[in-house]
Please model this.
Amino acid sequence: MGFVDEAKFFVKAGDGGNGCVSFRREKYVPKGGPNGGDGGKGGDVYLVADRQLRSLIDFRYRSHFKAERGTNGQGSDKHGKGGSDSTIKVPLGSVIKDAETDEVLVDLIQDGQVFLAAQGGKGGYGNSRFATSTNRAPRKATPGKEGEERWLKIELKLLADVGLIGLPNAGKSTLLSKLSAANPKIAAYPFTTLDPQLGVLNFPYTDPCIIADIPGLIEGAHEGVGLGHQFLRHIERTSILLHVVDGSVGLEQALSDYQTLMTELAAYNEELLSRTHILVINKIDLLDEEDIQALTEGFADKAHHCLAISADMEIGLEALKELIGDILEKQREGEADDLSSE
Model:
C-alpha cells in the first residue's frame, strides 16, 4: 500500500432551509397573522487533526465530503432543524491549501486542532419576520443560502524529531534499524516507490523520539529530479537533521557528497541550514585509523556535531544515541520555558 502524502478533495457545506409562508388559522382570529418559521442552518464541514492517523490513504477512496442541509421552516412558527456537520479527520502535520490558488489556509500541527473548511448556508426567513404595522399579512419568505463549496488540497509533512538525510547508499536504512532495533514499534510507511521508515528511539532519561528516513535526495532534488522534491518537504519539521556520509569513498568524495546534500537543502529552503545538524561519517569499519582521523578532521567544522560510526558493526552508536537524547532534552526544556513565559 503506497504512502499517500498529497490529496485533493471537495467539500460542500449544507444549504440553509427555506423560510415558510404560513398564517394562523384560529376560529376567533380573523385573518390570522403570519406564523411561518425560518429555515434551519446548513451543516458545516470541519477538518480535525488526529494524532492516530499516519497517512492520507483514506482520501484515495473518498474525495467528496458533504454536510447536511437545513430543513425548511413550517407553520406555527416552527423553525427548521439545522443540518448535521461533516467532520473529516486528518493526520497531524497536514497543510491545507486552496486547490485553485494554492494559498495555504491552515497548518494542522496540534492534536484536536479544528479548521472550518466550508460554512453552512444561513436559513431563510419565514413570513412572520416581515410583518409590519402596514403589512400584517406578508406573503414573503426567503430561500436558504447555499453552503460554501470548494476543492482543497492536503499535503502531509511527517512530524519527526530527527530527519535522516544522505545520498543513496550512505547507510541510512541500516542506521535507522540499528538505532531503533531495541524498540518493536518500528513501522514502515512506504512512500510512492521507495520505502522510508519511521523509527522510535527510546532514551532512559527523556521522552522517546521519532526518526524519519528521508530517501530520494540526489543532485537536483530541489528541482524535482528523482523523488527528492517530494521528500524535502518532510524534513521541514524536524528539529535535528542527521546527515549520513559514506566514509568508505574517501575524504575528497565524502566532502563532495556532503556539499551536494547541503546545496540541495539550501536550494529548497535556506532555513533548513539553521537547524541542529549532526554529521555522521559511516562505514568506518572499512577504514584504517589514519583514514578515520583524516575524515573526522576534514568534517570537523561542517556541522554542529560530528561523529564517526559504523552502523553495520554498531560502532559509536551509543555515543550517537546519547548525543541525540541530550540535544532533544535541551530543546524540549527550551520549548517548555517558552510556553511558561507566554
The chain has a mean pLDDT of 81. The two ends are 43 Å apart (CA to CA). The helical segments are 172-179, 228-232, 251-268, 289-298, 317-341. Residues 317-341 form the longest helix (25 residues).
